[in-house]
Design a protein that fits this description.
By secondary structure, the chain is of the alpha/beta class. It is built from 16 helices and ten strands. The chain has an eight-stranded mixed β-sheet with strand order 1-2-4-3-5-6-9-10, with helices on both faces. A two-stranded antiparallel ribbon has the order 7-8. Strand 9, helix 11 and strand 10 form a beta-alpha-beta unit. The longest helix is centred in the first third of the chain and has 16 residues. The C terminus is likely disordered. InterPro entries: AB_hydrolase_fold, NDRG.
């Protein structure tokens, strides 16, 4: 005797519960690379389900570590994306929580070397391809990864990405940053706060996030307690000695995101100006310095739009759209596809999809 059919609503609730449970899975790995030493990797989500998920590779900015992206992924505005994705968070050398000082004879890798070595992380974890999600120095690293390994990269979402080498003035200023032994001096802290939060920090804590003040305090606390000052200094020096980024040669689709109050806003605009507009889209958010803190919901929506343009996260409904109606329409209603199956990355669709499915994202708020 056959068992009775499962009601569609019950099936969807079961799938939702399973996704939520998978998204809570967290594992850490220490992965040795060819030229960048050991990288500590934090994985959110179940990579055994990667065929049905979007897989993101994140690299953090100066003065922080994987926790900056982990906090963003755990925010309420990312819940729908998180439940249908896996996140591979990279800590650059010596930046994992409570790391000891790097050896004096350790040559901290350049941004180029870090980017090229990230493929080792994918190979170790048996991940075929990812969407890069990086901020600041980490965005520059991921851009170089995409340039070197386009077959492993489905797209790049780059926040406050710098395309040019450090200016003479920029380098001159950082020479006077004070690093007091194992502690971050006031000058270094001021630089890192300005680099991260921009003009919004110097004027007032603005933005849509009511927890902005706590985010800044957490950043300062981690800087003084969780991160090793000597290692942070090495990452800053590497960023200041960066080479030009030839992003116009990139073969993957890119979304550039910046805030109007970011110190790198004009740099991102210049980078966008020099790229192929068929491949690169820019989003500029008003009243934001650190867009992850000031406008997380706008960033989450932009990530979703970008992924949909790549044939990923297709069952996630945009805000203000009824879930049942959208799913029945997008999946053809009676084709028997579950939401789990519909979320599966469609590489065939990706290969013929161009940016006309992803309209330019312009933020007016």
């Amino acid at each position: 005797m056959s068992s009775p059919p499962i009601h569609p609503n019950l099936q969807q609730r079961r799938e939702s519960f399973a996704r939520r449970a998978e998204s809570l899975i967290e594992r850490k790995y220490a992965i040795s690379t060819d030229k960048s030493g050991e990288l500590i990797i934090t994985v959110q989500g179940d990579l055994t389900q990667q065929e049905k998920r979007a897989v993101f590779l994140t690299v953090h900015d100066l003065g922080c570590n994987h926790a900056s992206f982990q906090d963003f992924v755990n925010s309420p505005c990312m819940t729908e994306i998180k439940e249908r994705s896996c996140f591979i968070h990279v800590d650059v050398p010596g930046h994992a929580d409570n790391s000891g000082a790097l050896s004096d004879n350790f040559a901290f890798p350049s941004l180029q070397t870090l980017g090229e070595d990230l493929v080792t992380v994918l190979d170790y974890l048996h991940v075929k391809y990812v969407i890069g999600l990086g901020e600041g120095a980490g965005a520059n690293v991921l851009a170089r990864f995409g340039l070197k390994h386009p077959s492993r990269c489905l797209g790049l979402i780059l926040i406050n990405c710098t395309g040019s080498a450090a200016t003479v003035l920029e380098t001159f200023k950082t020479k006077f940053i004070s690093w007091k032994g194992d502690e971050v001096g006031q000058g270094a802290e001021d630089f890192l706060l300005y680099h991260k939060f921009g003009h919004a920090f110097n004027e007032q804590l603005v933005g849509d996030n009511p927890d902005k003040e706590k985010i800044v305090q957490d950043f300062q606390s981690r800087l003084h307690s969780t991160l090793n000052s000597k290692n942070v200094k090495q990452y800053v020096k590497t960023f200041m000695t960066r080479k030009d980024l030839p992003l116009k040669n990139c073969k993957v689709d890119i979304l550039l995101i910046t805030g109007m109050l970011s110190p790198y806003s004009t740099v991102v605009e210049k980078l966008h100006k020099d790229t192929d507009k068929e491949k690169v889209t820019m989003m500029k958010i008003e009243r934001a310095g650190d867009v992850l803190a000031d406008a997380p919901a706008k960033v989450a929506q932009s990530i979703l739009l970008f992924c949909k343009g790549q044939g990923l996260l297709t069952s996630v409904v945009m805000p203000g759209v009824d879930r049942q109606r959208a799913f029945s329409t997008s999946s053809g209603g009676s084709n028997g596809m579950s939401m789990e199956e519909y979320d599966k990355p469609n590489i065939r669709r990706l290969s013929i999809t161009v940016n006309d499915q992803l309209p330019p994202i312009q933020s007016k708020k």
